[in-house]
Amino acid sequence: MNYIFALLVLISIFFGIINNTLNDVIDSIWLGCKKTLDISLYLIGIMAFWLGVLNIAKKSGLLSLFSKIVTPIIDKIFDELPEKSEIQGNIALNFSANFLGLANAATPFGIAAIKKMQDINVDKTSASNSMCMLLAMNTAGFQLIPATIIAILAANGFKNPQVIILPTFIVTFIAFVSSIIFSKVMQKIYKKQQINENIIKQYDNSEVKKIWN
Amino acid sequence: MELINKFSILILPLIITFIFIYGLIKKTKIYESFVDGAKDGINCAVSIIPYLLAIIVAISMLQASGVFEFVSNKFKIVFDALKIPCDIFPLMIIRSLSGSALLGLVSDIADKFGNDAYITKLAAIMAGSSETTFYVISVYFGAVGIKKVRYALICGLFADFVGIVSAIFITNIFFG
After folding, report:
1. Phi/psi of residue B133, nearest 5 degrees
2. Staple partner for B159: which of A112, A151, A179, B74, CB 3.0–4.6 Å?
3. In B, which residues are within 8 Å of A36 by CB distance?
4. What is the ipTM of this complex?
5. How do the domains of chain B map onto residue ranges?
């Protein structure tokens, strides 16, 4: 991420000089700051609400129940999650929300999952295989209906915007599947990231399991 | 279509109702649980802000610098050779970077070329199948303080690339 950040900033300034847009580039820094705060304020509210609701589901045991149902599918894609934990449930919620186009619910569920993954990660500054897989699933943009784009087309007077639903679905499906496969392949190529087996064992004996049995 | 619309409006209230009723049946302290969870949510969202700031400022600088127009002109020959409309190029890049800018571009293309144009449909499909990879990575990894992303970014960009190529391909099949 170091090089990418530096690269983005330096390219911008370089092209700012070449294209004589340096003033715009500098102005865009302040605009970017303002935009970040706008997004952050929104994110704080949304995250608080959904993690609140998620916590009710967790305390009532609903999340564990849901996890149990989806575990067989999730464990085919992720291979180093603790058994019978809430992570599988969180991942499934994240996926379902993305799939249904509920982006603002998907992020908090995904964050809840990645936080659990960080618990069993050894090097806390480096991403684990499960995290990369979660990101692969999220960056592919798999969804049933591209609602915003349809709304924009409709607003522009496009007669029947729903004609793009099926082709778009096929495209995101291809991207989604190849992203998962690619992540699996990269997992083998990259230097192994340690995960903490002890904490995984603890998970198996934790309260989660008591609710389970 | 009608049915799908109704479904997507109903799904959120249904999920929330179900979680609350299940909580009540199981005699969960709903209010305390909600407030506790929300507190975590706020802390987490605040810890993401620096990561978001870095990526959003960098991308907004990039857009202002005019680098997209520059690269787009350079690639014109390649695009012509592949029979892909050159005006789609900025959209290919933006779709991994910024959601709001992407919607603006789709709107621009629809205005410029008309709704029946092939490029408008291509733009819509390419935009509809996209996810802002850089934003997603900074939010998720920001939340847990991950600085070494390992292969997550390559993987995200690979998915974007596959998305672009298959969008061109599929649009051709459906509307070409």
Report:
1. -50, -50
2. A179
3. 49, 52-53, 56-57
4. 0.84
5. 48-175
